[in-house]
């Protein structure tokens, strides 16, 4: 049984022009699926719709999004709230904008855990510190005692990724999670996401414009262009045997190193 089934999904904003047009794809348990494409192709809108987190004016106008057989589109807000963070978590591209500027990281981290797990203050702190260390934030005590504005953009991004991973969700949605990080930290975060899948069986949907990251991390890759899913298949099918010219153009744009563009 597929964990997630998106069927003929269309999403529009107030002007009525579809941001996502009749998209269908399926994701099995434990798979890592990357959605790639240029800015404005609809990939972020698609994964935001899964958790009912579309910006004002955004609405699923057709199709269904089935999670464990239940249609998320038809759920009431209270039902979705019970799923968010525990069964499905999301890492945003700009975590800094999502963090509360007047609360310390330790408070926000504890609150994010407490929604789904009842632990002592000490247990909250230890769990958060353990996850921050996995994100290669070495001075965890200072990070926990800091306000968001006291951390660099890259540090805030790693805090957000740690928070999203802490509950070990069944499905992790990641919207360009490494775009604000330098190359070395990107590699560490990507490795940690892969380890999360290998260790806990977490299913991951990754939105990225980086074909290199998608190639390394994914079991399947979907390619979006102008609101449409133009190609969807296994990692090897998309990387080595693309059918669409748009996909070929994206692959050609990836820099080569030592004469090789992709490797397992």
CATH topology of the largest domain: Rossmann fold
CATH class type of the largest domain: Alpha Beta
Number of helices: 11
CATH architecture of the largest domain: 3-Layer(aba) Sandwich
Give the overall silhouette.
globular
The secondary structure category is alpha/beta
H-E string: EEEHEEHEHHHHHEHEHEEHH
How much of the polypeptide forms β-strand, as a percent range?
A: 25-35%
| Gap between N and C termini | 27 Å
Outline the biggest β-sheet: 6 strands, mixed
Name the average pLDDT.
88
* Number of strand elements: 10
Low-confidence stretches: none
Q: Estimate percent helicity.
A: 25-40%
Strand order of the largest sheet: 6-7-8-3-9-10
Give me the CATH superfamily of the largest domain: P-loop containing nucleotide triphosphate hydrolases
What radius of gyration results from the CA coordinates?
A: 18 Å
The total tally of domains equals 2
Summary?
The strands form two sheets. Strands 6-7-8-3-9-10 form a six-stranded mixed sheet, with helices on both faces. Strands 2-1-4-5 form a four-stranded antiparallel sheet, with helices on one face. The chain contains eleven helices and ten strands.
What is the element layout, followed by pairings?
Layout: E1 2-12, E2 18-28, E3 32-36, H1 43-50, E4 59-67, E5 70-71, H2 77-83, E6 88-91, H3 95-98, H4 105-114, H5 121-134, H6 140-144, H7 153-166, E7 171-175, H8 183-200, E8 203-208, H9 211-217, E9 220-225, E10 228-234, H10 235-240, H11 245-252
Parallel strand pairs: 3-8, 3-9, 6-7, 7-8
Antiparallel strand pairs: 1-2, 1-4, 4-5, 9-10
